[in-house]
Amino acid sequence: MPRDIHQVLETVWGYKQFRPMQERVIRSVLAGRDTLALLPTGGGKSLCFQVPALAMGRLCIVVSPLIALMKDQVERLRKLGVRAVAVTSGMAPMEIDNALESTVNGKVELLYVSPERLGSELFKARLPQMRVGLIAVDEAHCISQWGFDFRPAYRLIAAVREVHPAVPVLALTASATPAVAEDIMRCLAFRAPNLVQGSFLRPELTFWVNHGEDKLGKLLRIANKVPGSGIVYLRDRRGTVRTAQFLKHHGIPAEAYHAGLSMEERDNVQKQWTAGTIRYVAATNAFGMGIDKADVRCVVHLEPPPDMESYYQEAGRAGRDGRPAYAFLLAHPSDERKMHEKFEASFPSLAEVRRVYQALADQHQVALGAGLFEAYGLDLSKLAARTTLPVGKVHSALKALELDGTLALSDGARTPSRVMMRASGDDVHHLRIADQRRGPVLEALLRMYGGLFEEPSIIDEERIAQQTARSVVQVRQMLRELERDHVLFYHPRSDAPQVTLLVPRRDAQTLTLDPQALQLRKQRAWDRLEAMARYAFHDEGCRAQAVMRYFGQALPDRCGRCDNCKALERADRTAEPPARWLVDEGRVATRPHNGT
Question: What's the rounded Cα separation, in Å, for the pair 538 and 587?
Answer without folding.
Answer: 24
